[in-house]
């Protein structure tokens, strides 16, 4: 029996950075303890499959739209549903991109920037979410095969009217973030030259040699709600051009299945060499963006310090542009066809052993829901692969580089903010993140 | 995965690290408000690892707790265990 003990979820626990040293005191590694991020899959087994997405989004609570859409996509894969009507695609795109904007704009420490720009973006995101069935914290927007809500022409026009101010704020935010990371890059000592370059004092790790993994559209261009996965090595080589969700098991695997820190890897390179990262820096690393302002900012990011904090701001701009694009498309105001989403009871007919994978690129990166049907409408097994779990090896590299440069708390904080794990500490105002550092001696030969 | 629990703020103790006394589905608990200083008594919050991280509307909070109970993950007795089936 798996139990989540309420006290463990409610009792304050500071983030622990474990610094690993050899017997002679030499630094061998550093990592963030993920003990406070339990795996919830055992709680899901035996539940009605149709209810699993809603349950996961409520257990997580912090990225409900990303879990909502990844889960519904997994159900669609199980039931063989698709392609979606254009109006459903449009409304899901509004939900997903607005939730990404909100996730970053509501945390000043995530992207920096002026308070007025962040407030404008948060307000625009809120209005968009309200329009697509996310008036409460947990969206009811999507159902397998479609969406439950429509956007009236009047609401669409109001959002269109508000979009230019949001675009201007996002553009300002991105340019400011690029200025800041470039300034840190020039003022700080660069680390050893790496395939991607990098800014030592900006928190970036120039030595990270893992791949970038992100979702893309049919043309291989980054898309937060893309249908295919693209993997690009640090040297720019394309390891996977565009893999559909059904190929998930062939592309990624967990070294330690079911562990809070599962150490996922790219199967093609093996557990030792298959390191990778997800999230805004990876999204900018897999290919050129499709929207003009963000593409210009991406080009500048690529030539500069390439920090993840600046990448987040660029992806906020890309998300606002994506919203504006959808608002310009009349599909968003097509009437919702009653009964268009399939009857969830149809999922009861999914044969035992069938696997459905749904994924989205959320504000922190790739989120995967993988469900295995039990043949009776119940869930036999599941994997919920989160961005934080996938970025744990990258964060370990960032922390090790930070410890090697400086033991100052500020250096560790910048490293943690780069990877942006899903922990309360990332909501802390800049410079106030509380981290507990513990030393661990690594026995010889391990 | 991050796991966040909805709770209602009953009382706030201000200070450099403000804390809140919470009601979690009838059970008393506490959390740190350092990352959500705008929270007030009566507000619903999402609590992760002992920190309030998000203001939550009352309906969402109630729906979450109801979903936990409906799925058999909330014992309803206040001893704070979420049990898996079996």
UniProtKB/TrEMBL annotation, chain A:
Keywords in alphabetical order: Iron, Magnesium, Metal-binding, Nickel
Binding-site residues for Ni(2+), renumbered to this chain: 60, 63, 422
Region (Disordered): which ranges?
184-204
Residues involved in Fe cation binding: 63, 425
Task: Enumerate the InterPro entries for this protein.
Answer: Ni-dep_hyd_lsu, NiFe-Hase_large
Instruction: Please tell me where Mg(2+) binds in this chain.
Output: 41, 384
Cofactor(s) named in the record: Fe cation; Ni(2+)
- Report which superkingdom the organism of origin falls in: Bacteria
The protein's matches in Gene3D superfamilies, at most eight in alphabetical order, are given as:
Cytochrome-c3 Hydrogenase, chain B (1.10.645.10)
Give the Gene Ontology MF terms in alphabetical order. Answer: nickel cation binding
In terms of PANTHER family, this protein maps to:
COENZYME F420 HYDROGENASE SUBUNIT ALPHA (PTHR43600:SF1), COENZYME F420 HYDROGENASE, SUBUNIT ALPHA (PTHR43600)
Descriptive protein name: NAD-reducing hydrogenase large subunit
The top of its lineage is:
Bacteria, Bacillati, Actinomycetota, Actinomycetes, Micrococcales
Automatic annotation (TrEMBL), chain B:
Q: Which GO terms describe its molecular function?
A: carbon dioxide binding; iron ion binding
Which InterPro entries does the record cross-reference, listed alphabetically?
Answer: Hydgase_assmbl_chp_CS (IPR019812), Hydrogenase_HupF/HypC (IPR001109)
One GO BP on record is: protein maturation
> Per its UniProt record, what PROSITE patterns does this chain match?
HUPF_HYPC
Q: Mention any Pfam family matching this sequence.
A: HupF_HypC
Q: Which family does it belong to?
A: Belongs to the HupF/HypC family.
Q: What is this protein called?
A: Hydrogenase maturation protein HypC
- Annotated source species: Xylanimonas ulmi
Q: What is the lineage of its organism?
A: Bacteria, Bacillati, Actinomycetota, Actinomycetes, Micrococcales
